[in-house]
Write a structure and sequence with these properties.
This is Heterokaryon incompatibility domain-containing protein. Pfam families: HET. There is one protein chain. About 30% of the residues lie in helices and about 20% in strands. The chain is α+β, with helices and mostly antiparallel strands. It folds into three domains: about 260 residues, no CATH class; about 200 residues, no CATH class; about 200 residues, no CATH class. The strands form six sheets. Strands 23, 24, 25, 26, 27, 28, 29, 30, 31 and 32 form a ten-stranded mixed sheet that branches. Strands 1, 2, 3, 4, 5, 6, 14 and 15 form an eight-stranded antiparallel sheet that branches. Helix 16 runs parallel beside helix 17. It is globular, with a radius of gyration of 30 Å. The structure holds zinc ion (ZN) (2 copies). The site of one zinc ion has 8 residues, from helix 4 and helix 7.
Length: about 800
């Protein structure tokens, strides 16, 4: 995150510089960027050199010719039905690795060449050293060599552990032919390698064209897979090169006539999708239009269904929000203006999700004073950049109405705001499209952000697209297409992720992004499309990091985790910004929750499971929220019990009984065993840092928290349990007793075999059975409360 913000700041600075001195734009730009240590944009001229090197290789060697012929048949008939897993993956393990490795699915550390290869995996030069010889003449071999050199500089811990050598430095070494350790090592490794280089075609969309019958198909990635010789493997290096090349073109398949089109008239269907240089360009608008119309015409019902499973009519007409902006489709010279809707006017609108930013940069607002004026017109020139860009997108899509919170709700009318804030969920849910200003910290930044790699070429080479005559000598060339290296991949670019953005840190975006059925995210590095059927970047790469439909209805816990990490200008919005979502979810059929049983961010049916949260100890708790609710913490929480235990309902019913929540006081009443454990905590409040728990000193026998906590009691070397306090206390005030209320048992395969989960409570002054929560705890010794009788406790 830090690197990213440095990057963004410097791009901004670079732009400011170039505005004031247009004569030396390029120098100023690269200067500003170099100073901020941004590797990939510092070297456009070095990239030019690499491109001319590739252009000077005019031939294709016989191995590449044979690959290109096979690739042609894959492009023409992309039936990847019998794909094997190759290299064989352990998905459970890989998923973890992918998580820690920037969501990139890595191959196993070693590739077993004896495993049967699927038809889309091609053995290229063997031994790998033949590539070096061949690359002196063959353009595709040169491209593969470049890809291997670049990927070899990737570290094990990407994205947290980035390559230490800037891209420019590596390219300089590459252009020189050697001369630096980064390139020399790899060339030597290739020379020493006995293994083959493999190329694997990854189709996109995976099987999508079969399902829908008619869809755009893009030749996906070509993975370059090469196993490094053992002696190359030093500490941080990956054992396997697993980089991707992308093809810069798309083919459209007709429904029943796929083969006819392909065989007779493929050429007109080949279009090159050059990398987009600006999200506001006509190409970018065309892509948004393609995404949008593709979703509406071809995607399944899931894209026309609300979170509450209400099916939206084909024409997607809904009762309009109270006010919307008419962007002026008929006469683009006319200013946009507000229109008011009373009653049952139906229509379609686009919604904007954006950050307001610091107060001095707050967006243009409608107030009681400016309402009449805004109804007449809001000149584009008076709009902040993000708003004007959003108007441009609406116009290009032919969508007349746009909803922006700051303009469509009168901001200084509290009654109106109260009323409208209740409707916000519906505004996003019924919008035909949501535009997310994901990388803009405030509305002055815009949707169409200048891209850092906009002026860098993709080093690419042309491959021929051939007919599929069975006799390869009779193959004729239908056309050609480019295969190149995308800079937007590791280790040089950050993975595009809708949740690693300034917008995603904002509290209100939880519900906006879950309720919106279609979202275009505008990031500095590119655009992302997320609907319920598809989540991809502008290269057609699938992206991760969104909740699925199943998750909304069953995994409120995931929503809590995401939401609690976000930032709130007003603490009261922590809960209020989830109201619209809760209301929608309560309508879901078969959902045991109804909105009358939703208290302080928690469904009654989820208690006690969802009150077993742990906080990251971010300070004092919010006294206006009951202490048992996760929302009482002004920061991220973690559902520890859920993480540790595959729960069964009877875990709870055996241990406690939830009697209800008072709708007036918020007090939660539970029947359970309550034990005074002060003596266990006071004597041994040993503080444990994260390092102790995760590092060498961590005791693998116990399931220990990865956040700070305290061991409870001690028997010899063994603790009795673990306690985590909600606030940032380092020691207990010795005066008040501390209680444990038993809520659940978790069974484990390793000792302690059973953990008894519960809350840590302090008694409220002057009450017998009224407590407030101060933390959570797992006790490992049931003797500590076995003899007690269950009693009724009220937690406020
Ligand atoms: Zn070759
Ligand atoms: Zn869709």
């Amino acid at each position: 995150m830090h690197v990213l913000s440095t990057l963004r700041a410097s791009i901004h600075d670079a732009k400011t510089v170039s505005k004031s001195d247009s004569g030396s734009d390029k120098n100023q730009l690269s200067l500003a960027i170099r100073d901020a240590r941004i590797p990939f944009t510092s070297t456009p001229s070095l990239v030019d050199d690499v491109c001319s090197l590739l252009a000077s290789r005019t031939k294709l060697c016989h191995v590449c010719q044979s690959f290109s012929s096979q690739l042609s048949s894959w492009i023409r008939k992309p039936t990847f039905d019998e794909l094997l897993q190759w290299p064989e993956r352990n998905f459970a393990k890989d998923r973890l690795a992918a998580l820690s490795d920037g969501y990139r699915l890595l191959p196993p550390e070693r590739v077993d060449p004896t495993t049967p290869r699927p038809s889309n995996a091609f053995k290229h030069h063997r031994p790998a050293r033949d590539l070096l010889k061949s690359a002196k003449k063959c353009r595709f071999c040169e491209l593969l060599k470049l890809a291997i050199v670049l990927d070899s500089n990737r570290r094990r811990g990407y994205p947290y552990d980035k390559t230490k050598t800037p891209l420019g430095e590596i390219l300089m070494q590459y252009n020189r032919g050697s001369g630096g350790p980064d390139v020399t090592n790899i060339i030597e490794g290739l020379q020493a390698s006995e293994d083959a280089i493999y190329l694997m075609v990854e189709p996109y969309p995976m099987g999508g064209y079969i399902k829908s019958g008619f869809s755009k198909s893009v030749l996906g990635n070509i993975r370059v897979i090469w196993q490094k010789p053992k002696r190359m493997l030093t500490g941080e290096a990956q054992a396997v090169v697993f980089t991707r090349l992308i093809s810069l073109f798309a083919i459209y398949f007709g429904r029943a006539d796929v083969d006819r089109i392909l065989d007779s008239a493929l050429q007109p269907f080949i279009s090159t999708r050059q990398p987009l240089h600006n999200s506001g360009s006509p190409d970018a608008m065309a892509l948004i239009g393609e995404w949008f119309s593709g979703c509406r015409s071809r995607h399944g019902e899931c894209c026309r269904r609300t979170v509450s499973r209400q099916v939206i009519p084909e024409d997607e007409l809904h009762v309009m929000p109270s006010r919307v902006i008419d962007v002026g489709l008929d006469s683009p010279n006319q200013d946009p203006h507000l229109v008011e809707n009373e009653g049952q006017t139906v229509g379609q609108w686009v919604a904007l999700s954006h950050c307001w930013g610091k107060e001095k940069n707050h967006p243009l607002k409608t107030t009681r004073r400016t309402l009449a004026r805004h109804l007449k017109g809001i000149p584009l020139s008076s709009m902040p950049r993000t708003f004007a860009d959003a108007v441009a997108v609406c116009r290009s899509l032919g969508l007349r109405f746009l909803w922006i919170d700051s303009l469509c709700i009168v901001q200084d009318d509290e009654d109106e705001w109260e009323k409208e804030s209740q409707m916000m969920g519906t505004v996003y849910e019924h919008a035909v499209l949501t535009l997310a200003a994901s990388d803009a910290i405030d509305s002055t930044r815009g949707l169409f952000l200048e891209r850092p790699y906009a002026h860098i070429k993709f080093p690419s080479v042309q491959l021929p697209l051939l007919t599929a005559e069975s006799d390869s000598r009779r193959q004729t060339t239908l056309g050609s297409y480019s295969v190149g290296i995308d800079w937007r991949q590791e280790p040089f670019m950050t993975y595009l992720h809708p949740h690693w953005t300034p917008l995603a840190t904002r509290g209100w975006c939880t519900q906006e992004l879950i309720l919106s059925r279609r979202v275009v995210h505008f990031l500095t590095e590119g655009m992302l499309w997320v609907c319920r059927d598809k989540a991809e970047d502008e290269n057609g790469q699938m992206i991760h990091g969104r909740l699925t439909e199943r998750d909304w209805s069953t995994e409120w816990g995931k929503i809590i985790l995401e939401h609690s990490q976000r930032a709130f200008t007003f603490e009261k919005d922590r809960l209020r910004s989830l109201d619209g979502l809760a209301k929608e979810l309560s309508k879901v059929k078969n959902n045991s929750c109804n909105v009358g049983e939703y208290f302080y961010g928690t469904w009654l049916a989820d208690i006690p499971e969802y009150i077993l949260w742990a906080s990251y100890r971010t300070g004092k708790k919010n006294p206006r929220c009951p202490s048992w609710s996760w929302a009482s913490c002004a920061g991220p929480v973690w559902l520890r019990f859920r993480d540790f235990d595959n729960l069964r309902q009877d875990d709870f019913s055996q241990c406690c009984k939830v009697l209800g929540v008072s709708s007036t006081s918020g007090a939660l009443t539970i029947e359970g065993k309550v034990a005074d454990i002060s003596h266990l905590i006071l004597h041994l409040m040993r503080r444990n840092g994260t390092k102790d728990l995760m590092g060498q000193n961590g005791n693998a026998t116990y399931r220990q928290p990865v956040i700070q906590g305290y061991a409870v009691g001690s028997k010899g070397e063994e603790p009795y349990g673990w306690v985590e306090f909600d606030d940032d206390r380092d020691a207990l005030a010795m005066s008040e007793p501390i209680y444990f209320v038993h809520l659940a048992n978790g069974e484990y395969y390793t000792p302690p075999l059973i953990q008894h989960w519960g809350l840590i409570l302090e008694k409220e002054n002057g009450y017998d059975n009224r407590y407030s929560r101060v933390g959570m705890c797992s006790l490992w010794d049931s003797k500590l409360f076995a003899d007690l009788r269950a009693s009724r406790v009220e937690i406020i």
